[in-house]
Amino acid sequence: MSRSASDHRSSLADGRSVYLDGEVIDVGRHPLFAGIVDTIGDLVETGGQPDLRRCLPGSEHDAAMWWHTPRTRDDLTARRRASERLAERTCGFVGRGPDHVASFFAGFAGDPSVFGERAGVACDLWREAAQRDLYVSYVIIPPSIDRSRRAEGGPITQVRVVEQDAEGMIVDGDLILGTGTAVSDWLFVSCIPPLAEGMDDHALSFVVPVATDGLRLHCRNPYGAQTSVFDAPLSTRFDETDGLVVFDNVRVPWEQVLVVGDRAATAAQFHNTSAHTLGNLQAQIRLAVKLRFMLGLAHRIIDVSGARDTAGALADLAELGALTAGVEAHVLAAEYRAQPDAAAVMVPDKRYLYAAMSRQAEIYPRALHLLRSLTSSQLIDLPSSVAAIDHPDLVRHGSSPETSAEERVKLYRLAWDVVGSEFAARHHQYEMFYAGAPTVSAAHLRRTWRFEEATALLDQAMGGWDRSTPLPGS
């Protein structure tokens, strides 16, 4: 059952407790959220296109490709093309679109045995969300303030179980980085960092509607407060919002609980299934599209600025192209070298996936630097707003034989929203810490790199000679 953009907008009028500036807002009607509401509606509707859907196994219902567990390499290709289509709708600037958490659930459904006696719950939740075309967000990171409290033995605010009964459990506490949650249908709640001994009450995995009683979302300042789309073309449309999610004695029925009180299962759901791999492959597909967009922007800036024959500009453009191709190549290599796991899920090659992720914190800042270099001072003296661009002085100043003043300002306004605006700064931070601290990405890479292949080559090179081996031909 595919949904329309209007279906998604209507679904937000469900009494959810979304806070901005300390007050509850109607997120579906609030002007600062209008852009992302429209964008998510468009992405949900895009997922209804027939070529992006397939019938769910064992069901008469179809679903968008990102809900499907890949069983063949062709399945992975179809998923990649679907995620590319979605990313292209936002130039890669919506990181937690409908295909992100759905990819984790596709991994859960591929091997639900990690959930033990709750395996059926995992499959039921996956199937319902897929069939209803729901937009699911997640919170899986504990508050950073808790890090020091763990070491000191102080109180921990991270969400935890406080009570269980025949109907379900009650949870209390909070988690950070509720990206997209304000405009999503369901919220998946868990903890991806390793849990220390004694933290069994925090070992959780469950799903709740965003409108659940006792669930409150405190949003950061939206970046859509601009005079026009012309002045801020990305901020006004693609700011997916982030926020602190608070659980105030929230009741969760057992039919929505995947893990409770089991630290091993909390970790296994991500890393003993294909969930973490499929979810992060989607992220790298999106990053590749984002870099491709930035490459196109850089190329157009060179043309408009008249620097198309300048060696320095061409060198910057070439480097940006190489960065883009590198991420694309890792995505394609992970797909091409995929192998089925023990549950017959076709898992992308983790060596290439995590290699790309390990460099994400370097690639994106470098791409921004190259784009800044190409725009030079052109971003500094842009007109104050679209209302100013028709003044004769600005028309004369901004025109060129090939480009009108309006088109030039439009291009550089777009560039500013990529490299210099508050929205741009958030994306800079987001991409740098997408996978957590650099040590996290390095750990994934060390865990998945096949070092035995490298050492076998070394052993071959060192074999067959010693201190007494004569020179060839002697």
Describe this entry's structure for a reader.
This protein starts with a helix and ends in a 12-residue tail after the last helix. It has 474 residues and is an alpha+beta fold. It has two domains: 5-271, Beta Barrel (Butyryl-CoA Dehydrogenase, subunit A, domain 2), CATH 2.40.110; 275-458, Butyryl-CoA Dehydrogenase, subunit A, domain 3 (Up-down Bundle). The protein has helices at 5-11, 34-46, 73-89, 98-110, 119-131, 146-152, 235-238, 263-271, 275-305, 311-336, 350-375, 392-398, 405-419, 422-432, 438-448, 451-462, and strands at 17-20, 23-25, 53-55, 62-64, 136-139, 160-164, 168-175, 186-189, 204-209, 215-219, 243-253, 257-260, 339-340, 346-347. The strands form four sheets. Strands 2-1-10-11-7-6 form a six-stranded mixed beta sheet, with no helix packed on it. Strands 5-8-9-12 form a four-stranded mixed beta sheet. A two-stranded antiparallel sheet has the order 3-4. It has 16 helices and 14 strands.
